[in-house]
User: Fold these one by one.
Assistant:
Number 1:
Amino acid sequence: MEQRARVEITEAQRIVVKVGTSTLTHQNGKMNLARMDRLALAISELMNGDREVILVSSGAIGVGMGKFNLTRRPLGMGMKQALAAVGQCELMNIYSRLFATYNHTVAQILLTKTDVDDDLRRKNVMNTFKSLMEFGVLPIVNENDSVSVDEIKSMMMFGDNDTLSAVVAKLVSADLLIILSDIDGLYDSNPKENKESKLISVVERLDDSIRECAGGAGTKRGTGGMVTKLHAAEIATKAGVNMIIANGSDPMILLDILEGKDIGTLFIRQ
Ligand code: GLU
């Protein structure tokens, strides 16, 4: 099973890559430009090798916080929406410039849950992805934080970009979803608390014993943690998409993953 999945990974044509806020920003909330540049380089290389890539990028709220020198995520929805609106602009501006240096064009797609739940809207979104990829453009996706309203939150929002990335992977029938995080993968216990904890390299079946390995952790700037990543793995693998969680501290790791190297945690598709 693992052998087959490794071969599928090296042959993956359509890849969704997700990066979180903690990968894209420094602890003070400012953008980690060196890392974003390496990300742009790695993804450009994949695209130059005729692979189709979709980037799901967090960071709107985090970058907005950095812009206003806030060190904690605000609790009020209005404030979060305003920060997301400011931060998303900054983020796309930088992505657009970085990818341009490697001769690639980017496009912004902001989604809410209603866009994929509704048949007509979903079809429209799928068509947009298809056309962009035909043009060789890199779609950069984020949740449309500035239109999501608190009262109807659970109905309208994905809530986190791990889930969003899996939904997108399913929507575009991706061959592979790679979630880049600030941790090497899924451990059998929380590595921040237990020095003996071991990295799980392959998950063939996502059962309760695996769910028990995930704590609720996340950072002050992001929202993720292992729980949302396992949720994403559930959606992706059920939709027939292999998924890998790996450390994004050097995004060039993407190229090693696509060479079939045993990196991070691989969740094998069902
Ligand atoms: N959409 C949020 C942002 O761009 C991030 C959500 C997440 O990190 O899961 O700040």
Note: The pocket of glutamic acid is lined by residues 20-21, 58-62, 84, 142-143, 145, 160-161, 222-224 (CB under 6 Å).
Number 2:
Amino acid sequence: MNLEEAKKQIDTLSAELKQHNYNYYILSQPSISDFDFDQKLKELEALEKEFPVFLYPNSPTQKVGGDITKNFQQVKHRYPMLSLGNTYSEEELLEFDERVRKSIGNEFTYVCELKFDGLAISITYENGKLVRAVTRGDGVQGDDVTNNVKTIRSIPHELTGNFPAIFDIRGEIFMHRKTFDRLNNNLRKELIEQGVDEDKIAERLYKNPRNFASGSLKMQDSKEVAKRSLDAFLYFVYSDQNVAETHAESLQMASSWGFQVSDHFKVCQNMQEVMAFINRYNKDRNQLSYDIDGVVIKVNEYKHQEDLGFTAKVPRWAISYKYKAETAISKLREVTYQVGRTGAITPVANIVPVQLAGTTVKRASLYNADELERLDLYDHDTVFVEKGGEIIPKITGVDKSKRDLFATKIVYPTHCPECGTALVRKEGEAIHYCPNDSHCTPQLIGRMEHFISRRAMNIEGLGSETVAGLFKKGLIQSYADLYSLTYEQLNGLEFESEDEAGNKKKRSIKEKGAENIIKGIEASKQVPFERVLFALGIRMVGETVAKKLAQHFETLDAIIAASPEQIANVYEIGEKIAENLIRFFADTDNVELVKRLQSLGLKMAMEFDPNESRSQLLAGKSFLVSGSFSISRDELKKLIENNGGRNVGSISKTLDYLIAGDKMGPEKLKKATDLNIKMISEEEFKAMLNH
Ligand code: IVH
């Protein structure tokens, strides 16, 4: 490699690694496996060693890792938070051992611990009280997340026993796998109910427990953090006082002061014992309730740790052995294509069932046409399946040497596998869509599931699986059919349902269930217009948009009659949403459907309290309500809306009036004065209405 080539390669690798660091530490959305990251980092390190002229101080090889998020106060660590050297091979581990022995002789022991896959935290205790908790940040300073850390039950606020007056304790904050599954599933349901497109849902879900824990710890609202049931293991005491002679003793001490220390550690006499520990947990790690990504090996005696000291980045007395993501080998049975509620197509590999990370895997995601092309998949190929902490396993590669001579290549379909309509792919997007939204079965079922969901029509007693069952049995074809279902039709009805892993179950509706469904359907007729509008599942018409449209137009007829410009001009609606609405109501089937729903008793207009007076006195004017008043702020906002005005959330040049109450914040006052916004009192506002 010549100088020019080396520079180019170093620049490319640095830029790539910086981006991955950003994705991992700041966005909490890793974009590469740990293994690949470490490989790239090592490649860069080797190049920089060979071409030291290109070793820059801001190279990713010269940093501990993370960066700092803006929202928290920065605190400098009393002892820098270093990372560990790591390896994936036994050979390199033996080299580490050799280096250690060369430096301190043979009279020492190692402690093997699990490498918890979470995020590092440093907590300071003064006189037995938790005073501060700081994330690793860039190793020198991190975010002060004390309030969030205090919500973690296993972290004591006050200590017991004989502890040093001032010390730092380091550990790992993590989320148990079960908690992750539960919370991520709830989040998925919530996003579905909010009407988020399914291809966007995958992006917004957390990728793995580490990711979720990290996202949680960086939240601004500690009350929310408390709901995330985070947990912590502590593994290192830093104190100017001597607490113990060895690391193992210090762990026992920490435990006696009230810290949660993992039981899974072992003092090892030699490398055979170290390797045995590593192999044991590689096998058993699925039985733990949390993720680990390797084992940390530390020299046990503090005096030896001191003799060994540190390199610029890592201690010479410790190393981590990282496990590779678990891979299984299986054979492709077929590729099927799932069609979602919005028509998004997801290719899925159906494979010969195989054990992987403690579960049986039958299906793995292939994401999209590009991924299929990248894998170059053929019929009955031998495939590598990996579960890197994500919920859905993925196919990471193909063993082409095992390919059948006459196998044919898997070709992405041009037409919808469910309804036969030609697929479309929007420019710049990786996903194909089936545009036949009015007649393609899975789209219809998906929309039906949305219609009955909690935030839409909230039909109690009726769940997604049942509604899909009713559809497949031919009992319902459109939303309107729900309203003619009878108890007799439902009671005793048997159907088959399928969960996300592709497992089929027989289900049946019993008497009580049938009764509840009928009751739930009847009760849904009371759901207000704005939610009915949301329930219709019109693209881009989520909860907030539906509410704005309902408040502005007041009746469905007015929305149908409105021109694209009239819709687009509603505050914060815009052309794209207007286009979708116009397209929806241009379809006579849809108009007929809503008319039928109306005649069945669903609310297709806003209902106003006859005691509330309404007018258009404030039409076109925007208001910001700030401070406290003789009536509640919500009541005041309602008055504004009922009289045609618009409430906004922040001060900007375009704001017409700021209604200033008692105890209005000084910043708002300053900003409003700077921007020359008209400020009025509650009395002046009321006077406007009496005109
Ligand atoms: S000891 C100077 N022990 O791994 C030694 N670290 O790659 C400090 N980690 O930043 C670290 N489990 O976030 C240590 N039992 C364990 C660990 C552990 C997980 C993390 C920690 C550290 C990273 C280093």
Note: The domain at 3-62 is CATH 1.10.287.610 (Helix Hairpins).
Number 3:
Amino acid sequence: MRLVLRIGGSVIASPVDSVLIRKYVDLLKDLKGKGHEVAVVVGGGAQAREFIEVAKHLGLDGRAQDEVAISVSRIFAQLFLLKLGALSCIAVPSTIGEAAKCLNDGKIAVMGGLKPGMTTDTVAALIVEKVNADLLIKVTDQQGIYDKDPKKYADAIMLERLCFEDLTHVFSEDKHKAGIHQILDPEAVKILKKGRVKVVVVNGFEPENVLLAVKGEKVGTLVMTCRERHYNNANLCS
Ligand code: UTP
């Protein structure tokens, strides 16, 4: 399977968790050993936000703030590369083309941010599009995608199955459900919905969730293109 793994900075970098990074490196080796082709996109989380604040205090503009955040995410990518050794490429890809080449050379591609004004979700979506990936797994600090922001609303309900259209249309009409967008950047959704990729959002503090998602087992939230939608209740489509 061609797989893109988007590791949220909220999982490995807020604060930096070397034990978890090691577990993800082992997981990547395991996936490769099982014959999967894997591209990874990591974010800088709280560490990136700290540098954004420093840049702000220095009076630097938004573009410069993004640039330092990208650099931070690339340091995390570099840690993965160094730990993966020969299984990965020698440098962190700085373009989608380089990431695709790394993957096509039979290596695990690990990259961070790409350019200012983007998110790492969009980077992951661009790789999915470029290499025609089968599955995108986003590991985050929540169990999946909720009907509203679970950090703000105690009664938020996790949605097990969604169509991309739900993310762009249905929920955008309801401001209370804005949290649903934050877990997957709308720009990324726009790119993803054009293809045939499935997206699974899982809790990243338990890396074994990634293996469950790869096996197609029920975990977190599954988002896919639903050509014909049959709602079995207000939230779920099948
Ligand atoms: P993200 O918010 O995409 O990653 O990037 P994250 O830290 O993994 O986020 P969670 O864990 O999903 O919440 C962090 C920041 O890096 C800059 C932006 O400033 C973004 O808010 N960035 C990242 C870019 O400017 N361009 C990129 O391509 C990627």
Note: DSSP finds ten helices and nine strands in the chain.
